[in-house]
Write a structure and sequence with these properties.
The complex is a heterodimer. By secondary structure, chain A is of the alpha+beta class. Helix content of chain A is about 40%, strand content about 25%. Chain B is built from 8 helices and no strands. The N and C termini of chain B lie far apart (about 60 Å). The chains are: A alpha+beta, B mainly alpha. The interface between A and B is large, with 69 and 71 residues.
Chain lengths: ~250, ~180
């Protein structure tokens, strides 16, 4: 009888064996006393090591405090612009005084100065620049649009465990799916759309028409979201762009 | 229908979500390795900035982040060691301590660890090879075998065996203990 190897025992303890390998290992363990003892010892040792290593853990800083942020408009440049506009207004006031002293040019010059003054002062009241992350270069991505029927399913078949599915309800009749990242293929089936990205990581954008009776979005075999007549469930993370996001886990 | 501007904004939103999800785990991995919360925070943030600058996602984002953070930490440690050696040459006796946790005067967190379990674990970890340290820290962070293999450029089939050896080395370095398995 061949005993379980060290690597196999570790993989069994850590849940890293495939279902077939796991069944074989458990089957062997059931009839082999030394291997049963070895697996039991490996489990105890693993728990002990993890318990010691947990002593090193520190609470990470709050994500909101460390999120990289850059202002869209440099503050120094904005200050220069404001001083420049103030100087423009002063020059206009000087011009107005001069024109007032010369009756022949007073009318047209004052009309022009009035318009310029209104333009200059109206631009000073700009909204505060939004602080946000710089936008990364968007990959061209792949996309397809279809007409959904009464019961439509979008299945995202991936091996990744990092990524996001974005869902948004839109006006119009077409359902659209786009993907960015990885090597994506899209296949339109009867009442279904299959998005394959077997090797890479990507984000997926699904737009669902408000009029569609029932659209289900799946990641592999798991239902991620159900949209019935424009109502999305379960609630994901709502973004101000109108998208609702669901992390792929 | 989706516009390219929507996609760009969506990609930025995706990056934000990714950061929120992955930051704590990656920070834990680096912090366990170096024992310096500030350095760990800097290294992890730098790794995410590089990911963002990259634009599109790598094949495996999680493994890519581990690889970059590991390399950044190695570089930071090399710089730190050089500075310590230089300081020692200029001011004899200064910067001594090296692997010793107790005498590290410029890091009060380490000094506080001297009398507790953390110091003992860290001292044991410090005796292991760099690969074993990284493997154990990844294991403690709940990373999968394929992520460990890709990040550390190891054969996925050998991860279990390597982890078993690393744990054995750690137990030996930690020494006898009542609750040892």
């Amino acid at each position: 009888m061949t005993h379980l190897e060290t690597g196999t025992i570790q993989a069994l303890v850590h849940g890293e064996l495939s279902s077939v390998e796991q069944a074989a290992a458990i089957g062997h363990e059931a009839v082999c006393e030394p291997c049963r003892a070895a697996v039991s010892q490996a489990r105890r040792e693993d728990a002990w090591v993890r318990g010691r290593l947990a002593a090193l853990d520190e609470t990470p800083p709050a994500v909101a405090d460390v999120m990289p942020r850059v202002p869209r408009t440099p503050q120094r440049a904005q200050l220069r612009t404001r001083w420049g506009r103030a100087a423009t207004v002063l020059v206009m006031l000087g011009g107005a005084s001069l024109a007032w002293a010369m009756p022949t040019v007073r009318g047209p010059v004052m009309a022009w100065l009035g318009k310029a003054f209104r333009d200059a002062t109206s631009r000073v009241a700009e909204p505060t620049p939004v602080v946000q992350l710089p936008t990364p270069t968007a990959s061209p991505g792949s996309g397809v649009s279809v007409m959904p029927g009464a019961r439509f399913t979008v299945t995202v078949a991936v091996s990744q465990d990092v990524g996001t599915v974005f869902v948004r309800v839109v006006d119009g009749a077409e359902l659209s799916v786009r993907a960015s990242g990885g090597n994506v293929s899209l296949e339109s089936l009867d009442e279904a759309l299959l998005v394959r990205n077997p090797d890479g990581d990507g984000d997926y954008f699904v737009e669902i028409p408000r009029t569609a009776p029932r659209v289900e979005v799946r990641v592999n075999a798991t239902r991620l979201v159900l949209v019935e007549h424009g109502v999305i469930a379960p609630a994901g993370i709502a973004l101000d762009t109108g998208w609702t996001s669901y992390p792929i886990r | 229908m989706t516009t390219s501007r929507d996609e760009s904004r969506g990609a930025a939103d995706g990056f934000t979500l990714l950061f929120r999800e992955e930051y704590p785990r990656l920070y834990g991995y680096v912090q366990r390795l170096c024992g310096e919360p500030d350095l760990a925070a800097d290294v992890v943030q730098d790794a995410f900035v590089r990911l963002h600058a990259r634009g599109e996602r790598p094949g495996s984002t999680r493994a890519w982040l581990i690889t970059v953070a590991t390399n950044l930490l190695r570089n930071a440690r090399t710089t730190h060691t050089r500075r310590r050696a230089l300081l020692h040459r200029i001011v004899p006796g200064a910067g001594e301590g090296g692997a010793s946790v107790v005498t590290d005067r410029d890091n009060p967190v380490r000094a506080m660890e001297a009398s507790d379990e953390r110091a003992r674990v860290r001292a044991a970890i410090a005796t292991l090879s760099r690969r074993d340290q990284e493997l154990l820290s990844l294991l403690a962070g709940g990373y999968r075998y394929r992520e460990m293999a890709e990040a550390l450029q190891l054969n996925p089939a050998s991860i279990g065996t390597l982890l078993a050896r690393a744990k054995l080395s750690f137990r030996a370095a930690y020494g006898g203990h009542d609750d040892a398995p």
